[in-house]
Amino acid sequence: MTRSATAHSGTAGNGGQDVADERDERRAPTAEPAAGRIGTPDEPAPLDRGERRQLDVVRRFGTVGSLLLAVGALGAGANPVVPSVQGLRLLGLPARLPTASLAVAYAGLLMVVLAWLALGRLARPGRPRLISRSQLDRTLVMWAAPLALAPPMFSRDVYSYLAQSEIAARGLDPYVVGPVDALGPDHPLTRGVPNIWRDTPAPYGPLFFSFARIITWAAGDNVELGILLHRVLALVGVGLIVWALPRLARRCGVQPVSALWLGALNPLVLFHLVSGVHNDALAIGMMLAGFEIALRHRRVAAVAGALLITCAAAVKITTAPALGFLAAALARRRGGRISDLVRVALMLTAVFVAGLVAASLLSGLGFGWTETLDTANKVKSWMSPATALGMLGGGIGIALGLGNHSDAVIALTRGIGLGLGGVTMAGLLWLSFRSWGRHRVREPLACLGVSLGLFILFGPVVHPWYLLLAAIPLAAATNSARFRTAATGISVFLALMVPPPGSTFDNRVYVLWQAVVAAVIVVLLLLWFVRRVLLREQGFPTAAPLPPTR
């Protein structure tokens, strides 16, 4: 399958998509290819006519789900305290029907997840016929576009970005003061910030605020424009992921479309990086792009790639370990001697230190960010095993009459978890350098994903989008069916765990369950309808024939 059929896929809307798909259909065989001619592992055969029809239905099913999510976001998204659509005759209707909007959003969420799972059958590694890159790219655009234009969902962190950016734009230090102290409680950018973050300093790197101040300069106090501009920044990160992922996959012997399906089209990416507007998108994108650029056979490419990873760390420091595994990959290419590792490590360390110093000084914020890296630990996340174990230990102490020592127990278990995560990362880093396999790049990239995943799980706070830091590199690094099955199941579980408003529904849990039940009924009816349509098109009867009348 060539890529020429996609030259105009993003410019002609649905009509352009249909024309491009028609070109794919004309180029693909209409019958099963002969044995031994169905395509090599590097260049699989295109989908046949029946599979292209399945792809069309799956793509449209997911697009409808994304549109429903966008409509539901008007009334059940992570909106500010005073939504701007309130009072409008049509757009304000979902805001006046929050439970119905939540049901619509959940229906869309379930449809996107089901469509993603169905699409996975056409992107599975080892399959003789695979979805083409152009078909997958069009699907990604169709599913992401409605979410990119809708209000944010699943998290209200973007409102913290806006308030902290305003603090930096005023010449104050966001690493010292929180939104309430700097802007006041009645400021329009403060009102949308979750209560837990109103008095806390920012935990993000100086490069992020260099970008964010430009957004503040352009948007001012306009919350909607600020959200759209921050989403553009997140989409740049997603674009870097889409650019780097298939290239890294080819280096590791993984089908690019298989890596993109699991890494870029993942519901966690759509829900939390695109819709949720998390700056993790930019950090992950720069990390992957830097890794890919540095692996090219030029010394200047290694420096440029390391600098890009340093920029990612200047947005979120959690991407910094990628430099260690990059050093292992480059040292192995040079011969795998300890001296090679030392020289490469010294070069990358110099780039890393120089890059962070430059980002800190040029931003005008200095090095205060190094003292606020643990701000997120204020949240007691039950998804973190270390924190959950500490909460359990504190609860047992209370039940036994030993007093409330929950904070001390949580601090202890978190410390043990961080220690285990650090030791595991160090061991995998050494293993990625000393392990000699046939694929000399796969081990460092795979070890990077595994180490980041374990470090996050052992860490004090776990959010669903944190695990993308591990899942996306692993999507490009391995063909393991066991990993892909586990990653698919975990992605579906986490995608369903966070409600669209991003809130906990304290004392109103019944609203959540009412919306979920209504959404399940709607989705089941839609699945029944889609199945009847497919059966009718394939020539199967959809109902028993009536007996003849006398």
Radius of gyration: 25 Å
Q: Report on the biggest sheet.
A: none
Total strands: the figure is 0
Shape: globular
Terminal-residue CA separation: 57 Å
From the helix content, strand content and strand pairing, which structural class follows? mainly alpha
Specify the number of helices.
Answer: 22
Helix content: 55-70%
Order of helices and strands: HHHHHHHHHHHHHHHHHHHHHH
User: Average pLDDT, to the nearest integer?
Assistant: 81
Q: Domain count, please report it.
A: 2
- Beta-strand fraction estimate: under 5%
* Poorly predicted parts: 1-41, 436-441, 542-546
Biased composition (Polar residues): 1-11
Family: Belongs to the MptA/B family.
InterPro entries: Dense_granule_Gra7_protein (IPR008120), MptA/B-like (IPR049829)
Transmembrane segments: 61-82, 102-123, 227-245, 300-329, 341-362, 382-403, 415-433, 445-469, 510-530
Provide keyphrases for this structure.
550 residues, mainly alpha, 22 helices, disordered N terminus, globular
Short description:
This protein is an all-alpha fold and 550 residues long. The chain has helices at 13-27, 49-76, 93-96, 98-120, 133-149, 157-169, 179-183, 188-191, 206-219, 223-251, 256-263, 267-275, 280-294, 299-313, 322-334, 338-362, 385-399, 406-434, 442-458, 468-477, 481-497, 509-537.
